[in-house]
């Protein structure tokens, strides 16, 4: 099992997501939960396509962190 970081962003119509470790792999949804589910499906599909093409599976390397600043 591999864990890929996904980034969720609010849009005018819902949410979108992408993974910095998987360029071109994106998804959308109405809620953060739906978008996360859709992104999991998109990642599985993306990795399956890479395998079928005989391409390497990218190793997850991205990390996340929050910092607090005065606003």
Give structural notes:
It is flat and about 50 Å long. A hairpin with a 4-residue loop joins β1 (about 5-10) and β2. The chain contains one helix and three strands, in the order βββα. The chain has about 70 residues and is an alpha+beta fold. A three-stranded antiparallel sheet has the order 1-2-3, with helices on one face. The chain is about 30% helix and about 15% strand. The chain has a domain at about 5-50: 2-Layer Sandwich (Double Stranded RNA Binding Domain), CATH 3.30.160.250.
Which SSEs are present, and which pair or pack?
Elements: E1 7-10, E2 15-18, E3 26-29, H1 32-52
Antiparallel strand pairs: 1-2, 2-3
Question: Tags for this entry?
Answer:
alpha+beta; three-stranded antiparallel β-sheet; Double Stranded RNA Binding Domain; 71 residues; 17% strand; flat
């Amino acid at each position: 099992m591999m864990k890929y970081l996904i980034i969720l962003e609010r849009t005018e119509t819902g949410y979108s997501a992408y993974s910095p470790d998987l360029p071109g792999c994106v998804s959308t949804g109405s809620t953060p939960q739906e978008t996360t589910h859709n992104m999991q499906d998109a990642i599985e599909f993306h990795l399956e396509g890479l395998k079928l093409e005989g391409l390497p599976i990218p190793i997850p390397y991205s990390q996340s962190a929050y910092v607090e600043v005065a606003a």
